[in-house]
Design a protein that fits this description.
The chain is globular. The chain has a domain of about 120 residues: Sandwich (Jelly Rolls), CATH 2.60.120. It has a 7-stranded antiparallel sheet. By secondary structure, the protein is mainly beta. About 10% of the residues lie in helices and about 35% in strands. The termini are far apart.
Length: about 180
């Protein structure tokens, strides 16, 4: 049995709202949100780590490319545990790379580098960790998407209205890049 807490983000969470407190979260029982066709589960965030890092999973079906974006102050890692995920990254000189990541593969995206990803197989899962001097961005998922208690993927994709994308950079270190093109294959 896990303890539930009320937080400033949710009426019920299994993640304690204050830092420095040990806790355990059973599989799938973190703070969940639906965004696009994916289920995002946050296990640790800024409140628990003094804004040092966050830890989350993204599960999804084979689908469309997540829109190109960057984090000005945040470094992000992608570690694939299931399926296959294609990671697209552009470095500070404008050189683009893409790599198909399968279970056990790791991808690193430095701060200020445009990136995107696409689930290439159904039931793919990525473990994500993000850290940087600007804090963490894990609450972005439920603010751009929809918080959920559901354990599975959304029945219909959750696509935010266009204007909602513009509200994100000031509050979370996520800046979308409309019209960004990937020149890789």
């Amino acid at each position: 049995m896990t303890i539930e807490f009320a937080t400033r983000h949710r009426r019920s969470s299994r993640i304690p709202p204050e830092p420095g407190r040990p806790y355990f979260v059973e599989k799938g029982e973190g703070d969940r949100a639906h965004l696009f066709g994916d289920l995002i589960t946050v296990y640790a965030g800024g409140e628990q780590t003094g804004n040092a890092f966050n830890f989350f999973t993204v599960e999804g079906p084979k689908g469309d490319l997540v829109p190109a974006h960057l984090h000005t102050d945040t470094y992000e890692v992608f570690y694939v545990t299931q399926g296959a995920v294609r990671l697209f990254v552009e470095d500070s000189e404008g050189d683009q790379q893409e790599k198909l990541l399968t279970p056990g593969d790791f991808g690193f995206v430095p701060a200020n580098c445009p990136h995107a990803y696409r689930m290439e197989r159904h039931h793919s899962q990525v473990v994500g960790v993000a850290a940087g001097p600007g804090g963490t961005f894990e609450r972005f998922f439920e603010n751009l998407g929809v918080p959920t208690e559901q354990l599975g993927l959304p029945r219909e994709p959750v696509v935010p209205e266009g204007g909602k994308f513009e509200t994100v950079p000031g509050q979370y270190d996520v800046r979308f890049l409309p019209g960004h093109e990937w020149r890789t294959s």
